[in-house]
Amino acid sequence: MKKILVVTLIIFLSAITLTTSSFSKNVLIVKIDGIINIATEELISEAVNFAATSNSEAIVILIDTPGGMMDSTFKIVNIIENSKIPIIGYVYPIGGKAWSAGTIILMSCHIAAMSPISIIGSCQPVSFNPLGGSTPVNDTKIINALTTYLTERARMRGRNETAARFFVEKNLNLGAEDALENGVIEFVASNIDDLLKMVDGVQVRTINGDVILDTENVQIINFTPGLRVNILKIICEPTIAYLFLLLGLYAIIFGFATPGYGGEAVGAILIILGLIGLGLLSVNILSLILIGLGAIFLVAELVTPGFGIIGSGGIFCIIIGTLLLISEPILVTGEWLTTFYTVGVSIAAVLGGFMLFTAYKVLKARRAKPIIGAIIGDIAIAIDDIDSGGYGFIRYHGEYWKAKANQNIRKGQKVLIKGKDGPMLIVEPIERAEE
Fold this sequence. Notes:
By secondary structure, this protein is an alpha/beta fold. It is 49% helix and 21% strand. It is built from 15 helices and 20 strands. The strands form six sheets. The chain has a six-stranded parallel β-sheet, with helices on both faces. A five-stranded mixed barrel has the order 16-17-18-20-19. A three-stranded mixed β-sheet has the order 5-7-10. It is elongated.
C-alpha cells in the first residue's frame, strides 16, 4: 500500500513538473492600435518589463496605426533597442497598416513581419496650416535627421536602407509582398501561429547579445495593461484631451461667475488632464497663451456691461489657439490630422457659442429689475391683525409675505409696501379696515 502511494506521488509530481515545463515558455502579445502617444509609450514599457519577469521567449507587437507623436515614437524605439528580450514587430490584422510612426517602430524591431495586404510607409512628418490643411514638412533639417534615424535602424537590422530613406523623403508605401521582396521585412504571415512557426530557430541580436528564438509549442499570453495605461489611453486620445482642455477652461469661467459650486476646481483638474493628454512638451506656448487669453475675454464678458465684442474675441482666440495647438511636425497621416482639427474647431465653436448664450442669459438676469424692488410701492391685503411694531402676514399677488407694521393694521385692510427689512416687508395702512 505504501509503495503504491509513493509511486502515485512520484507520478503526480512528475506530471506537475512536465506541465509546468511545457508552459514555462511563452510569447507575450501586445497590441498597438490608434494614435501613438504617451499611452502607447507606457504600454510598451510595461509589456517589456512584464516579459522580463515572466520568462518570455519573445514579445510580438501587433501594429495597426496611422502614426502618432514623434517624441513618443523615439522613446518606444529606445525601449525596443534596450530590450533583452527579442521583439517582433508584426503589422496585423490582415489589411492593417503601420504608417509613419508605425513604420519606424516596425523597422526598429529585432524581426519585422507583416500580414497579407497590409501596408507600411508614408514617414514624412506633416504639419497643419489653418488655410491649407495638413501639409508635408519639407524642412531639410527635420527630413535629413529623420531619414538618417530610420536608415540607421534599417542598417542595424540588415534591412533595405534605400527603402528606409524613401519612406521619409518620398513617402514610399509598400505592401507586404513588396516589403518582403525588397528586404524591408523578414516574414509575411497570415496569423500569429504561422508567424511563431516561421521565426522558430531564427537568431537575432539583442542588447545582451545573440539569441536563438525558440517559439515552438509556446504559450501565447495576451498582455493586459495596468490601470495607469488604460487611463492614459483615454486621456491621450487627442480629441478627448482637447475636449478636457476646453471644458476645463469653461468650468473655470463658470466657477468665477458662480462661486461656491466648485467650478474652479473641476476646471483646474480638466485642464491638467488635457495638458497631460496632449503632451506638455509638444504644446506650443503661443497656442496656450491664446487659449488662456480667450478664456480671460470670456470671463470679462460676464462681468462687463457690454456684450458681443469681448466674447467674440475670446472665441476667436480659442479657435486660433486650437489651430496652433500642435505646431511641431508629427508622424501621422495628413487625413487624420485634418480630421482632428476639424473636430477640435467644431468643439470650440459649439462650446463657445453655448458660453456666449449663457453669458447673455446671465447679463439679462442681472439687468432685470429686482423682484423686491418692483413690489415696493405696491398695495397688498393684510390677512392678520398686526399691532404697531408687531408682525403678521399680508397677501401680495396670491403670495403670503411676512410683514412688519409701524401702525395698527386690521385683517382685510389694504396696506402700502414701504420697504424691506431682510426677508420681511415693511407696510403701513392706506385705508380703514372693513367693518
